[in-house]
Amino acid sequence: MLIDQIRQPADLRRLAAGQLDELCGELRGHILDAVGDHGGHLGSNLGIVELTVALHRVFDSPHDVLLFDTGHQAYVHKMLTGRVAGFASLRDTDGLSGYPARAESEHDWVENSHASTALSYAHGLAVAFGADLANTRKVIAVVGDGSMTGGMAFEGLNNLGHSASDVTIVLNDNGRSYAPTVSRLTESLAKLRVNPTFVRQQNRLERLIADVPVVGRDVERAIEATKAAVREMWEPTSFFENLGVRYTGPFDGHDIAALERALRNAAEIDGPVVVHVRTQKGRGYAPAENDPVKKMHDTGPFNAAPAADAATATGSAAAAGVPRGKYTAAFSEAILKAGERTPNLVALTAAMPDSTGLLPFAERFPDRCIDVGIAEQHAVTAAAGMAMGGLRPVVAVYSSFLTRAIDQVMLDVGLHELPVIFCVDRAGVTGPDGPSAHGVADLVLLTKVPGMTVLAPSSYDEVSVMLDDALELDGPVAIRWPRTSAPIVGEHEVGSGLSARLIVRGTDVCVLAVGKMVEAATAAAEELEAAGISTTVYDVRCAKPLDPVMVQAAGSYRLVVTIEDGLRAGGVGAAIADELGELVDPPRVRVLGLPDTYIRHGDPDVLLAELGLDAAGIVAEVQRLS
Is 281 annotated as catalytic? Predict the structure, then answer.
């Protein structure tokens, strides 16, 4: 197979043009096999095959810097940089990362699952390289059209144009982020305007005219006015060029020869250049191409059709939508019911209506579900404005993405005491997507917002109860839950309001568990009871404000253990320890939580067990301290 001959990008340049289509087919086959076995990001990687091949044939990585925004579209890049074999362990614990990883390869510069960042990295690298007069390195940022909806991307563009940084920006336009892209940029500028010959002649003419005293300045102004008039006559005003960034395209993102010409032309231009490329998300695999929701953007393991049949397969991919039994499915059901009862309830998402469980709500109330694109900061402040205007906004967002907007949560929502509800998915250790996707900081950050109520359900049934309770409160509320399955419990196992729930009463030790850690705490109590240690377990439920009845009861024990799937330092356990420390005769308190380190990707249960955040970890700590 051709793919076995590619050990490094230079090997690509030895292939004849006629072999490239064959190689692309093999790359798609490997993607399907790997994602079918392990899950991962499918649609975006199937769509970027030819573009990535062209990039590595034109540019010389790692001498030239390739940045992928976001990193989940880098599977082909990884294969072309010597990591084909690693895909047998894609996203497994201790296996190949699903994102660029600096520890894996010198070809990986940025380790990120967050969008809209590559242009800022590119600007910084270009400034650093530009300080060396002998520099020959190129900086290339591959940015999706979905990422261009994020404010940080516009900030990066503004600085690139202002500084005339030498960066090639490849706009990978597949019309989608997770969902269809919220906005489109102007795309009809003529390809001629970045043809190197044309640009060199134009620049030479302008320099000659500018050197002519007095008259030269008048002629120069006249030429600029004429160019502006032509632009207005024959094409829409260019967003990019108004920022000082040259534009070319759009080009067929699956035509390698055309892509190579466009990229080589762009590389010859001084200053920032956009190469607008049209690609098809999910290309070559019919189930992804025909998925109307997110083109199989991300998926768990599934039965992939053989690579040879991929183009015509009708597919056996995992069913679309949120599987019942997940916390997200509980939220999906709960907000739909709440929407029926509460006519002023509106839902906001940052480009993720499917993954956050909002699709049923959007279908039922299309005018009350707002997708703002990959713009979490805007989502939060827009929600604040909606609350000021009398609506009840619910912002559905992943934990690691909400932390991008903590300033807005703190000062735009919290400071104004607005009744915005944050439904925070993927909280805690999320698993195979790694350190940039784990939601480890939300408990620490949200509990520091004055007036914020923070709720953590421990079961499927608790989600709807907490959403209903949140709608009755006046100030901001956050409800956070993990990616994992949610226990389904009986009516007597569900709490209410802001009160903690006593699960089992003992006499020797008290365990206070937050959210999904309740299951581990309950199992630990059974083991400890069998070992002769009588254990009380509370479901904390409300991380802020803490239930004073629970705190008072915990103070009567000799030993209190808290456990949460958030950062230990500054988290819920630390707040409990602080309150217990104010008692006249405080108990000994052991706080269990995540360390302040970056946690690698892997199975969530395995990672939590390694960190002592499971039943065995609780038992070991209690026995050690008893």
Answer: yes
Q: Let me know whether 136 and 29 are in one domain.
A: yes
Enumerate the H helices of 491-535 as residue ranges: 517-530
Digit-coded pLDDT (tens) for 181-208:
555 443 343 344 445 554 555 555 455 5
DSSP state of 326: B
Report yes or no on 290 lying in a domain: no
The model's pLDDT over 217-250, given as tens digits with 9 standing for 90+, comes to 555 555 555 554 444 433 433 788 888 999 988 8
Kindly state whether residues 508 and 557 are assigned to the same domain: yes
Per-residue confidence (pLDDT) for residue 184, from 0 to 100? 46
Q: What is the mean pLDDT of residues 64-77?
A: 90
| Catalytic site residue from 295, 404, 483, 541 | 404
Residues 41 and 111 in one domain: yes
Domain that holds residue 206: 190-230
- Provide the CATH number for the domain around residue 572: 3.40.50.920
Task: Dump the DSSP string for 307-338.
Answer: GGGTTT---BPPPSSPPTTBHHHHHHHHHHHH
Count of domains in the chain?
Answer: 4
Q: What is the mean pLDDT of residues 1-21?
A: 90
Task: Return the amino acid letter for 405.
Answer: A
Residues 514-544 have pLDDT tens digits of: 999 999 999 999 999 999 999 999 999 999 9
Single-letter code of the amino acid located at 137: R
- Judge if 414 and 503 occupy the same domain: no
Are the CB atoms for 238 and 276 separated by under 8 Å? no
**Tally of residues, the chain:** 626
Question: Do 67 and 182 share a domain, yes or no?
Answer: yes
* Structural domain includes residue 298: no
3-state secondary structure 560-609: EEEEEEEECCCCHHHHHHHHHCCCCCCCEEEEEEECCCCCCCCCHHHHHH
Tokens of 269: 């231009």
Catalytic residue of the set 26, 333, 376, 462: 376
Distance separating alpha carbons of residues 610 and 30, to the nearest angstrom: 31
3-state percent helix, strand, coil for the chain, nearest multiple of 5: 45, 15, 40
Catalytic residue among 281, 283, 426, 541: 281
State yes or no: is 519 an active-site residue: no
Q: Single out the residue of 493, 470, 456 nearest to residue 572, CA to CA.
A: 456
One domain, residues 202 and 259: no
Longest dimension (CA), the chain: 98
Active site residue 404: yes
Q: Is residue 48 domain-shared with residue 9, that is, in the same domain?
A: yes
